[in-house]
Amino acid sequence: MFDGRNSGNSSFSSRGDGRNTPEHELAVHGMNPASSSHGTRRGKQNRTSDMEVMKERFAKLLLGEDMSGGGEGVTSALALSNAITNLADSMFGEHMKLQPMYPETKEIWRKEMNWLLSVVDHIVQFVPSRQMAKNGTFTEIMVTKQRDDLLMNIPALRKLDSVLLETLDNFKDQKDFWYVPREVEDTEKNGDWRRDENWWLPVVKVPSDGLSEESRRLLQNQKDSVAQVLKAATAINASVLSEMRIPDDYIDSLPKNGKTSLGDFLYKSITEENFDPDYFFSFLDLSTEYKVLDLKNRIEASMVIWKRKMNQKEKDGKSQWGSTVSLEKRELFEVRAETILVMLKQQFPGIPQSSLEISKIKNNKDVGQAILESYSRVIESLASKIMSRVEDVLEADILVQRQMMGEAEVRSESEAESAFSSEYEETEKVAAAETPNSRKLSDFIGWRLSSDTKKHSSMSDIEFFHKVEQEKPMMKSPRALPKKFSYLSKLENMRSPSDRH
Amino acid sequence: MFDGRNSGNSSFSSRGDGRNTPEHELAVHGMNPASSSHGTRRGKQNRTSDMEVMKERFAKLLLGEDMSGGGEGVTSALALSNAITNLADSMFGEHMKLQPMYPETKEIWRKEMNWLLSVVDHIVQFVPSRQMAKNGTFTEIMVTKQRDDLLMNIPALRKLDSVLLETLDNFKDQKDFWYVPREVEDTEKNGDWRRDENWWLPVVKVPSDGLSEESRRLLQNQKDSVAQVLKAATAINASVLSEMRIPDDYIDSLPKNGKTSLGDFLYKSITEENFDPDYFFSFLDLSTEYKVLDLKNRIEASMVIWKRKMNQKEKDGKSQWGSTVSLEKRELFEVRAETILVMLKQQFPGIPQSSLEISKIKNNKDVGQAILESYSRVIESLASKIMSRVEDVLEADILVQRQMMGEAEVRSESEAESAFSSEYEETEKVAAAETPNSRKLSDFIGWRLSSDTKKHSSMSDIEFFHKVEQEKPMMKSPRALPKKFSYLSKLENMRSPSDRH
């Protein structure tokens, strides 16, 4: 599950200073059941080194990742955000199978997240309260309580976190599927294993007569529960990001108008009389992560431009947009753009942060929001990953069933099958496509979106958007590994300590 | 020793959030010898709560004292500086007697300083090193080591710290002097006890036949050792402060020229043909802390102005000073100003930070320098305080001796007495002055400075300055409580968490 380089070692702790203190070895040391009773020599060592590890974590956070001490590092908000991102990456980055986390890894995750999250315990707001004096009269006084957004969302995220770890634990005793290394699998077939887009994942195997009914139920239940987690974490993340101020840097980097940002084709599509998102997507080449991200960046940029222009107009009382575009139309275009973003988010839950999101995370100074955003992001990412692994098993099961019955028989039966099953056949077809890197987004959308769009074809765009917003259907996620962590590589936060003397 | 409000509770932890978590009670809990063996239930609780206290400390440092979490707090550098200042204040602020610190207080001081100082362990620089390959050849590689200034000064400051605490411990078993509350002492005399400038200090009492020779030796030894600590801590503090950049804010606040900053009298005195520091000081009214500080501020400001003008001139190649003042003269004026500052520092080791120093501390972003500056400042302050308490006892002894022998006899013998003893008589005269609030600095300077200036009357100002610099004599410190901590009250760092939702 882990390679040697990264085994349980949180990367945010070991970067930069080059000392390579094996703190986690110390921290993990003595965690076997025999020494779990407190008061033993080993237990004491363990707690002492916990203090040391914690001190080091916080010291580096205070230095803002600037190990020269010169104070040119990042803000506390970004340091904490990066710490949570990196911790999650080192804990879950190489978790490729449906199986419980190693107890040591789980312990480190729980412990270090508690340290990082402890900061929010001290973020407070003043609220009015009444104090009773000895004579029975009340005085209005101000007391502190934890900030509302944290009071509400941190316990929720902790719950989602533990649901995901329990999900993995639930696969502890299952014997109905197992994993083999990709090499073994492909050597048997004598194929070029690197041609598969998931060549770096182990291959899941099911018995030759398929999964037991019990296993299928377990998988489906876990999938439903993870879907709920994914939905909740995504909602929290989106909400926190939307509350963050749009940084001046980002605004300065924008082109003058939405048309320039979108390009002619996108601009024309969005501003045409009729807009059918399904039809719109069918014309887009979204075969690579880069192309999806580029679309998201362009649409977000144009939305910011439009909103600023509308605000400007309201303030100035004169049109900067041109007299040909009415207020109603502009709102319509915005809703269309928003619809595209929602659909992108649903179809590609694992795409990297957009420029706007990176800019917000990088410039955000609010420690509470930084922790909420990063924690919800890593939960979202882990949920999306577990979802993919569950789907892998279900697909392998379908493949085996099909082989058993023969292609023709499966085809004739497929009409009568449950909606759930046909969904996976759809995906299976996609997975079996010969040129996996040139697939269109419409290939991914699957039956649900198609039926939705058919059902709502008489609706206006706005109605459709609100419908989508309310239902937020959990669609089939593409099989790409969530790359949400990867914004870090763009931020280049680590500064080298400079030689001062 | 401590009043109830502040007993061992580090104020930097309990400010602002109003929750009043009794962490120190938890931390101190179980520190009696019976529970000091690890592995007991109480020992475990103790370590667990240590973790909690440490988490809280670091969390608040990360928030930069902005408990709203909005990231509008101070830098890590200033947060750490304030934390060290406040911790020292709560540990030593009310330590008024020559007696060991309470073990609990000492334990908290040691522990919490270790937490705060742990940050410097991670401040590193790259240095070239050679790595031997398997074939025996060497490759030049870069490795990290702790930054030189920290590597050198932090262990030194830790040593000075422990010397001071040992000094206090050395008075553990002495029975030769004791303290009575000021009220009791003054009620006996029926005087107005508030007229004494040290009315808030307990009164030291010695036996009616004076101290034993052993006690005198102990006191003198401790005084010498504390004097060394004071000298070393002062040197480190001055060196760190001098390395800090002069903030733009400070420069912007300066008047146009040194004459405006100094005022006519000071400017004339410093720029006259002949400058005698002793004569100069005799004309100054330095009766209050405010007046001493004002002098320091004016002189520091004019030195910054002059240095900037000289640099500007070197850069531009033209004079901005006016043609009447030569380069040599300007350097002479600077040396005179520097001499005044050195003398002020020696005479008033406990005066509050100057505007320039506050500005530097407030704007400094270097975490390493922040820790060095604040740690050396609190050590300097504690040393100065212990010094005053030792002198109190020695003075009480002289007073008793004088009473025993009768005034006339003491006078006739005083010529033959040792220099050490006469020094204290000198001070005694000052202390006995009827109007303590209108004393001049020259009253404080005592015999050493007088004899020094006589000895060096044939020297130039520059020679005199260097002489003073080299010798750095430890002169009698005025009896005012060191107020070095007090810059905090000016900084107004604590921000109220704003109601966000």
TrEMBL record, chains A, B:
UniProt biased composition (Low complexity): 1-15
UniProt keywords, alphabetically: Guanine-nucleotide releasing factor
Protein name: PRONE domain-containing protein
Organism: Eutrema salsugineum (Saltwater cress)
InterPro entries xrefs: PRONE_dom, RopGEF
Pfam families: PRONE (PF03759)
Gene3D superfamilies linked to this entry: PRONE domain, subdomain 1, PRONE domain, subdomain 2
GO molecular function terms noted in the UniProt entry: guanyl-nucleotide exchange factor activity
Stretches with biased composition (Basic and acidic residues): 16-27
Location of the PRONE domain: 41-407
Keyword tRNA-binding attributed: no
Chain intervals for the UniProt region annotation (Disordered): 1-51, 410-435
PROSITE patterns listed in its UniProt record: PRONE
